[in-house]
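User: Predict the complex with zinc ion.
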Amino acid sequence: MAGYTSDVAKSHKKFTAALNRAKTRQACLSAYWKHKKEHENLLKKHLKEELADVNKKKAKIPYR
Ligand SMILES: [Zn+2]
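Assistant: Here is the predicted structure with zinc ion placed in the model:
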C-alpha cells in the first residue's frame, strides 16, 4: 500500500519533470503517454495485490 503510494508519487514527479522539459507538442504528448502507461501498470499491480489480500481473508471465513 505504502509502496504503491510512493511509486505513484515518483511516477508523477517524473511526468511533471518530463513535461517541463518538453519543447515540442510531440514531446508533451509522449510524456503523457509514457506516464499513462506507467500509471496503469502501477494501478493494475496494486489492484492485483489488494485482490490477493481480499481472497486471503475471504478464505478464512466459513460459508454460511
Ligand atoms: Zn498520473
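The CA atoms of residues 22 and 28 lie 6 Å apart.
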